[in-house]
Hints:
CATH class of the largest domain: Alpha Beta
Number of domains: 2
CATH topology of the largest domain: Dna Topoisomerase Vi A Subunit, Chain: A, domain 2
CATH architecture of the largest domain: 3-Layer(aba) Sandwich
Strand order of the largest sheet: 4-3-5-6
Helix content: 40-55%
Mean pLDDT: 92
Low-confidence stretches: none
Structural class: alpha/beta
Amino acid sequence: MASSAGPEIERLIALLGKLPGLGPRSARRAALALLKRKDQLLTPLAQALADAGRKVKACSICGSLDTSDPCAICADPARDSSLICVVEEVGALWALERGGSFRGRYHVLGGLLSALDGVGPDALRVGELVGRVAEGQVREVILALPATVDGQTTAHYLAERLSGHNIEVTSLARGVPVGGELDWLDDGTIAQALRARRPA
Length: 200
Protein backbone atom coordinates (compact mmCIF):
# COMPACT_ATOMS: atom_id res chain seq x y z
CA MET A 1 0.00 0.00 0.00
CA ALA A 2 1.22 3.49 -0.78
CA SER A 3 2.48 5.35 2.25
CA SER A 4 0.38 8.37 1.19
CA ALA A 5 -2.83 6.57 2.21
CA GLY A 6 -4.13 7.69 5.60
CA PRO A 7 -4.95 5.28 8.44
CA GLU A 8 -8.71 5.48 7.70
CA ILE A 9 -8.15 4.35 4.11
CA GLU A 10 -5.75 1.61 5.22
CA ARG A 11 -8.35 0.35 7.71
CA LEU A 12 -11.08 0.38 5.04
CA ILE A 13 -8.88 -1.60 2.66
CA ALA A 14 -7.87 -4.06 5.38
CA LEU A 15 -11.52 -4.69 6.34
CA LEU A 16 -12.62 -5.09 2.72
CA GLY A 17 -9.73 -7.51 2.19
CA LYS A 18 -11.23 -9.83 4.83
CA LEU A 19 -14.34 -10.39 2.73
CA PRO A 20 -14.54 -13.66 0.74
CA GLY A 21 -13.27 -13.26 -2.80
CA LEU A 22 -11.47 -9.97 -2.15
CA GLY A 23 -7.70 -10.03 -2.02
CA PRO A 24 -5.50 -6.99 -1.33
CA ARG A 25 -5.73 -5.63 -4.90
CA SER A 26 -9.50 -6.10 -5.15
CA ALA A 27 -9.92 -4.50 -1.74
CA ARG A 28 -7.92 -1.45 -2.86
CA ARG A 29 -10.04 -1.13 -6.02
CA ALA A 30 -13.27 -1.48 -4.01
CA ALA A 31 -12.11 1.10 -1.45
CA LEU A 32 -11.19 3.53 -4.22
CA ALA A 33 -14.57 3.07 -5.91
CA LEU A 34 -16.37 3.70 -2.61
CA LEU A 35 -14.32 6.79 -1.81
CA LYS A 36 -14.72 8.26 -5.30
CA ARG A 37 -18.51 7.83 -5.09
CA LYS A 38 -19.23 8.74 -1.48
CA ASP A 39 -22.81 9.92 -1.97
CA GLN A 40 -23.87 7.11 -4.30
CA LEU A 41 -21.95 4.20 -2.70
CA LEU A 42 -20.05 4.82 0.53
CA THR A 43 -22.72 6.59 2.59
CA PRO A 44 -25.61 4.24 1.60
CA LEU A 45 -23.35 1.20 2.15
CA ALA A 46 -22.33 2.44 5.61
CA GLN A 47 -26.01 2.95 6.49
CA ALA A 48 -26.98 -0.49 5.14
CA LEU A 49 -24.19 -2.13 7.14
CA ALA A 50 -25.25 -0.32 10.31
CA ASP A 51 -28.90 -1.29 9.78
CA ALA A 52 -28.00 -4.93 9.11
CA GLY A 53 -25.74 -5.09 12.15
CA ARG A 54 -28.49 -3.68 14.34
CA LYS A 55 -31.54 -5.55 12.95
CA VAL A 56 -30.43 -8.90 11.47
CA LYS A 57 -30.36 -11.89 13.81
CA ALA A 58 -30.28 -15.68 13.64
CA CYS A 59 -33.61 -17.48 13.62
CA SER A 60 -34.01 -19.49 16.84
CA ILE A 61 -35.67 -22.33 14.91
CA CYS A 62 -33.65 -22.87 11.73
CA GLY A 63 -30.58 -20.66 12.18
CA SER A 64 -31.18 -18.54 9.09
CA LEU A 65 -30.62 -14.78 9.12
CA ASP A 66 -33.56 -12.37 9.12
CA THR A 67 -34.83 -9.26 10.84
CA SER A 68 -37.54 -11.27 12.63
CA ASP A 69 -37.44 -14.34 14.87
CA PRO A 70 -38.77 -16.74 13.78
CA CYS A 71 -37.63 -15.93 10.26
CA ALA A 72 -40.05 -15.41 7.35
CA ILE A 73 -39.61 -19.01 6.16
CA CYS A 74 -40.28 -20.60 9.57
CA ALA A 75 -43.26 -18.27 10.11
CA ASP A 76 -44.81 -19.01 6.71
CA PRO A 77 -47.84 -21.32 7.26
CA ALA A 78 -47.76 -22.32 3.58
CA ARG A 79 -44.41 -24.07 4.01
CA ASP A 80 -44.38 -27.84 4.61
CA SER A 81 -43.16 -28.26 8.21
CA SER A 82 -42.80 -32.03 7.77
CA LEU A 83 -39.91 -31.51 5.34
CA ILE A 84 -36.57 -30.14 6.60
CA CYS A 85 -33.63 -29.38 4.30
CA VAL A 86 -30.29 -29.31 6.16
CA VAL A 87 -27.66 -26.92 4.79
CA GLU A 88 -24.14 -25.99 5.86
CA GLU A 89 -24.56 -22.21 5.90
CA VAL A 90 -27.16 -19.53 5.11
CA GLY A 91 -25.69 -19.00 1.63
CA ALA A 92 -26.79 -22.51 0.63
CA LEU A 93 -30.29 -21.76 1.92
CA TRP A 94 -30.42 -18.62 -0.21
CA ALA A 95 -29.28 -20.61 -3.26
CA LEU A 96 -32.07 -23.17 -2.75
CA GLU A 97 -34.62 -20.40 -2.28
CA ARG A 98 -33.52 -18.75 -5.54
CA GLY A 99 -34.58 -21.89 -7.36
CA GLY A 100 -38.06 -21.62 -5.88
CA SER A 101 -38.72 -25.37 -6.05
CA PHE A 102 -38.40 -26.25 -2.35
CA ARG A 103 -41.42 -25.43 -0.17
CA GLY A 104 -40.38 -27.03 3.11
CA ARG A 105 -38.39 -25.67 6.05
CA TYR A 106 -34.62 -25.44 6.58
CA HIS A 107 -32.01 -26.15 9.21
CA VAL A 108 -28.66 -24.32 9.07
CA LEU A 109 -25.88 -26.35 10.70
CA GLY A 110 -23.39 -23.49 10.88
CA GLY A 111 -20.54 -25.52 9.37
CA LEU A 112 -19.38 -29.08 8.77
CA LEU A 113 -17.69 -31.70 10.89
CA SER A 114 -13.93 -31.49 10.40
CA ALA A 115 -11.36 -33.45 12.40
CA LEU A 116 -8.53 -31.38 10.90
CA ASP A 117 -10.11 -28.09 11.99
CA GLY A 118 -11.28 -29.46 15.33
CA VAL A 119 -14.98 -28.99 14.51
CA GLY A 120 -17.08 -31.60 16.31
CA PRO A 121 -20.85 -32.08 16.62
CA ASP A 122 -21.05 -29.74 19.62
CA ALA A 123 -19.82 -26.84 17.47
CA LEU A 124 -22.73 -27.31 15.05
CA ARG A 125 -26.50 -27.07 15.43
CA VAL A 126 -26.91 -30.87 15.45
CA GLY A 127 -28.74 -31.05 18.78
CA GLU A 128 -31.28 -28.50 17.57
CA LEU A 129 -31.93 -30.60 14.44
CA VAL A 130 -32.44 -33.77 16.46
CA GLY A 131 -34.76 -31.83 18.76
CA ARG A 132 -36.88 -30.62 15.85
CA VAL A 133 -37.17 -34.18 14.51
CA ALA A 134 -37.99 -35.55 17.98
CA GLU A 135 -41.08 -33.32 18.12
CA GLY A 136 -42.68 -35.85 15.76
CA GLN A 137 -43.93 -33.63 12.93
CA VAL A 138 -41.05 -34.25 10.51
CA ARG A 139 -41.39 -37.02 7.91
CA GLU A 140 -38.23 -36.34 5.83
CA VAL A 141 -34.86 -34.68 6.31
CA ILE A 142 -32.97 -33.75 3.15
CA LEU A 143 -29.20 -33.46 3.61
CA ALA A 144 -28.16 -30.73 1.15
CA LEU A 145 -24.48 -30.75 2.10
CA PRO A 146 -21.40 -30.30 -0.12
CA ALA A 147 -19.94 -33.27 -1.99
CA THR A 148 -16.67 -32.92 -0.06
CA VAL A 149 -15.04 -35.21 2.49
CA ASP A 150 -16.28 -33.01 5.36
CA GLY A 151 -19.72 -32.72 3.76
CA GLN A 152 -20.09 -36.46 3.35
CA THR A 153 -18.73 -37.14 6.85
CA THR A 154 -21.30 -34.74 8.25
CA ALA A 155 -24.09 -36.34 6.19
CA HIS A 156 -23.19 -39.83 7.46
CA TYR A 157 -23.05 -38.59 11.05
CA LEU A 158 -26.45 -36.89 10.75
CA ALA A 159 -28.00 -39.97 9.13
CA GLU A 160 -26.78 -42.04 12.10
CA ARG A 161 -28.07 -39.52 14.65
CA LEU A 162 -31.49 -39.49 12.97
CA SER A 163 -31.72 -43.24 12.38
CA GLY A 164 -33.64 -43.86 15.62
CA HIS A 165 -36.53 -41.69 14.47
CA ASN A 166 -39.24 -42.89 12.13
CA ILE A 167 -38.33 -40.53 9.27
CA GLU A 168 -36.79 -40.72 5.82
CA VAL A 169 -33.28 -39.24 5.49
CA THR A 170 -32.33 -38.36 1.91
CA SER A 171 -29.59 -36.40 0.18
CA LEU A 172 -29.55 -34.29 -2.94
CA ALA A 173 -28.91 -36.08 -6.23
CA ARG A 174 -25.56 -35.31 -7.79
CA GLY A 175 -24.38 -35.73 -11.32
CA VAL A 176 -24.90 -34.26 -14.78
CA PRO A 177 -26.35 -30.73 -14.55
CA VAL A 178 -29.26 -29.66 -16.73
CA GLY A 179 -27.80 -28.62 -20.07
CA GLY A 180 -24.44 -30.17 -19.19
CA GLU A 181 -22.32 -31.99 -21.74
CA LEU A 182 -20.30 -35.02 -20.69
CA ASP A 183 -17.04 -33.89 -22.28
CA TRP A 184 -17.04 -30.77 -20.05
CA LEU A 185 -17.64 -32.61 -16.75
CA ASP A 186 -14.98 -33.78 -14.30
CA ASP A 187 -14.46 -37.48 -13.57
CA GLY A 188 -16.03 -37.31 -10.10
CA THR A 189 -19.25 -35.78 -11.42
CA ILE A 190 -19.54 -38.42 -14.14
CA ALA A 191 -18.90 -41.23 -11.64
CA GLN A 192 -21.54 -39.84 -9.27
CA ALA A 193 -24.03 -39.49 -12.12
CA LEU A 194 -23.51 -43.15 -13.04
CA ARG A 195 -24.01 -44.27 -9.43
CA ALA A 196 -27.18 -42.17 -9.08
CA ARG A 197 -28.75 -43.26 -12.38
CA ARG A 198 -32.50 -43.90 -12.47
CA PRO A 199 -35.04 -45.39 -14.89
CA ALA A 200 -35.51 -43.32 -18.05
